Amino acid sequence: MAFDLMVKRIYEPPAADDGQRVLVDRIWPRGVSREHAALALWLKEIAPSDDLRKWFGHEPARWAEFRKRYGAELDGNGEAVAQLRGLLGEGKVTLLYGAHDEAHNNAVALAEYLSAG
After folding, report:
1. Which one-letter DSSP state was computed for residue 57?
2. Pfam families attached here (predicted)?
3. Where in the chain are the domains?
4. Most distant CA pair in the chain: distance in Å?
5. Buried-most residue among 41, 93, 96, 105 (CB within 10 A)?
6. Separation of first and last alpha carbons in the chain
7. What pLDDT does 2 receive?
8. Quick one: 91 exposed, middle or buried, by C-beta within 10 A (0-12, 13-18, 19+)?
């Protein structure tokens, strides 16, 4: 199933074509006000566990293993995944994250997970 899904750093300004903006980090990003975030939803429950987040540490060498482990966590987190899929069924969704690395972060892994199935 194809979704209209984007991934974006929360520090980038909101755009008219973002659709519903969903923060998928467990921790609120530093220096971002709730007004600036312009969120439809803060879905903390879909973020990686603290243990997995700390293990990954945004190390690109751990990216493949992180995606596998996070996918397993998502497989066991049906309620949060269903909530996000419901939003995707309504139209465009932008997954927001706070990490500096734009290629190796939980929002990118989550978008891949959702697109795969």
Report:
1. T
2. DUF488-N3i
3. 5-116
4. 36
5. 96
6. 7
7. 61
8. exposed
Q: Produce one character per residue of 66-85: b if its CB has 16 or more CB atoms within 10 Å, e if not.
A: bbebbeebbeebeebbeebe
Residues 24, 15: Cα–Cα separation, whole Å? 18
Contact partners, residue 106, CB within 8 Å, separation at least 6? 24, 25, 47, 48, 53, 70, 97, 99
Res 3: pLDDT: 76
79: amino acid identity, one letter = E
Name the CA dihedral angle for 55, 26, 24, 69, rounded to a multiple of 10 degrees.
Answer: 30
Q: At residue 82, what are phi and psi to the nearest 5 degrees? A: -65, -40
Question: What digits encode the pLDDT tens for the residues 65-115?
Answer: 999 999 999 999 999 999 999 999 999 999 999 999 999 999 999 999 999
